[in-house]
Amino acid sequence: MVFKSVKTFHFKKTLEEFMTMSTTAAPEWPAIAEDHPINQLLKALPSLIEAAGGYKEVYGVTLDPSGPFTTKLILQKFLRANADDVEKAKTQLGETLAWRSSFKPLETLSEKFSKEIFGGLGYVIEIEGVPDSENKKDVVTFNIYGAVKDNKKTFGDLDQFLRWRVALMEKGIQKLKLNEATMPIPDYGKGRDPYQGIQIHDYLNISFLRQDPDVKVASRKTIDVFSKVYPEMLCRKFFVNVPVVMGWMFAAFKLILSAETVRKFTVLSYGEELHTELGDGIPEIYGGKSAPLDTIGEQTLYTETS
């Protein structure tokens, strides 16, 4: 599809200009053509909301068919995730609204999970000085698989595990403050999305050769759900403390995943190498200069009993 040059999606403001805009004035999305993918998806929004039983919240943003800034921000994420294919974006957004309506992910933020089972398994931190990042701060979520005390208790109850995992994801998204965003997300292929998090999967002391069946099921379910309902929410994903001998497994993944997805993956055999990618803001155990995760990181809410 070709757009008239006078209506091409331009970004004339610098990052600094957008970040210092007056908080009293509602931000405005740059002018776009009437047939721009965002406007096409916006026209479909009322029917998508109706199909989801009237549910209209995505990532803490209430979608509004009138097209305010934050609504277009969310729509842009779904469009970028589908290479500007409006029909595919429409389908994914509809599925996401339906899932959020039934699963109620925002409620997981106030749910209390067993500290005995999930304590120490996930943390969210904010760091500055990430190399090549244009953000003042970046949100980093850590998944510490070596902290699992009992596979059956942690992964055996799939619904409980998924609600905890969603709570951790939503906590990271909450830090992105999408409902307060002032800088637009560029069109697909035209620049970086500044509203994405970084995810770390730490496999220290984990055996890849004897994976528990419950772990496999939970992992597959999490990947399946997250790939469908959390598009464009991660800019980088690091797998750290992965045994060198298992490098072949991740190499095999690259053969079946899209180039765009593979670009976001980085495998590190040693945890202390992570600072070369993320800078000094991460804990010392990862080569940075910050305090341990249990000191600086935020976790989901916990109860003391199982």
TrEMBL record:
Identification of the protein by name: Phosphatidylinositol transfer protein SFH5
Source organism: Phytophthora citrophthora
Cofactor(s) needed for function: heme b
Highest taxon in the source lineage: Eukaryota
GO CC terms: cortical endoplasmic reticulum; cytosol; endoplasmic reticulum membrane; plasma membrane
Major site of localization recorded for this protein: cytoplasm
Family matches, as PROSITE patterns: CRAL_TRIO
Domain CRAL-TRIO, first and last residues per copy: 105-294
Membrane topology: Peripheral membrane protein
Family the UniProt entry places it in: Belongs to the SFH5 family.
Cellular location(s): Cytoplasm; Endoplasmic reticulum membrane; Microsome membrane
Free-text function comment from the UniProt entry: Non-classical phosphatidylinositol (PtdIns) transfer protein (PITP), which exhibits PtdIns-binding/transfer activity in the absence of detectable PtdCho-binding/transfer activity. Regulates PtdIns(4,5)P2 homeostasis at the plasma membrane. Heme-binding protein that may play a role in organic oxidant-induced stress responses.
One Gene Ontology molecular-function label: phosphatidylinositol transfer activity
PANTHER family given in the database record: PHOSPHATIDYLINOSITOL TRANSFER PROTEIN SFH5 (PTHR47669:SF1)
GO biological process: Golgi to plasma membrane protein transport; regulation of exocytosis
Catalytic activity: a 1,2-diacyl-sn-glycero-3-phospho-(1D-myo-inositol)(in) = a 1,2-diacyl-sn-glycero-3-phospho-(1D-myo-inositol)(out)
Keyword annotations from UniProtKB, A to Z: Cytoplasm, Endoplasmic reticulum, Heme, Iron, Lipid transport, Membrane, Metal-binding, Microsome, Transport
